[in-house]
């Protein structure tokens, strides 16, 4: 299957670290011009987890890719609108939108009864997550609809395991809200030929996960808990495969899991493994 995205323009929100970084890098490797947004910018800031939009765009440019980093707090609608305005002025089109912005990890996501959880989770997960993705769609979809050729793609990164309860009520609500948002938009955008797909990774080795287990990407295989984990490039390769699939409208509105897409499209993780789907423990 061809994965050449030359001539395509992509926007990846929340791309400083984690899944966003992995997706942005893989889209650029496939030839897309990638805009990436995030609140972390400039040189590495003391006390902050590794990764800024500037460090990611530098990785893209040094590897021969093309793109631009834009500082954006997606809880501020005017900043989100400004991002889309810049893409419109510079490119006049948007082919791939990856809604990955997420503020839900500001507090530990504990598996406790709802009444024992801090209510601050709502703002972190819904204002800086669900609503931020909603408003990115609001400003970006008119530009995507005006692009001259069909075959557009909107991705919502989420977590989904056939509607099993995830264990934290706020997290479960937020992630399933993104699944439902994708479905509703898929219905509204069918006539435009724009596929809208909620995409669920498995046990990802994000910077937060590696830090919490006292390791890094070079030494993760020494940690038993990470034996079945996947790199953030794995979800990036899933996005590339979907973007390149001429028949992706057959999947619109349907939640997809990265492990199953690896089987469907034949891609592997960076270590050559085809990591199976991670399932919520019964």
Mind describing the biggest β-sheet? 7 strands, parallel
The arrangement of helices and strands along the chain is EHEHEHEHEHEHHEH
| pLDDT < 50 runs, ≥5 residues | 44-48
Given the helix and strand composition, which structural class is it? Answer: alpha/beta
Tell me the CATH architecture.
3-Layer(aba) Sandwich
Euclidean distance between termini CA atoms: 36 Å
Tell me the radius of gyration. 18 Å
Task: Tell me the helix content.
Answer: 25-40%
Compute the number of strand runs: 7
What is the topology, as strand order, of the major beta sheet? 3-2-1-4-5-6-7
Summed up, the helix count is 8
Strand content: 5-15%
Name the CATH class: Alpha Beta
- Fourth-tier CATH superfamily name: NAD(P)-binding Rossmann-like Domain
What does this structure look like?
The protein has 282 residues and is an alpha/beta fold. The protein has one domain: Rossmann fold (3-Layer(aba) Sandwich). 39% of the residues lie in helices and 12% in strands. It contains 8 helices and 7 strands; from the N terminus they run βαβαβαβαβαβααβα. It has a 7-stranded parallel beta sheet, with helices on both faces. β2 (33-38), α2 and β3 (66-71) form a beta-alpha-beta unit. α1 (18-29) packs across α7 and α3 (77-90) packs parallel to α4 (120-146). It is globular and about 50 Å long. GO terms for molecular function: glucose 1-dehydrogenase [NAD(P)+] activity. Pfam families: adh_short (PF00106). It is an enzyme of class 1 (oxidoreductase). Its EC number is 1.1.1.47. It comes from Paenibacillus auburnensis.
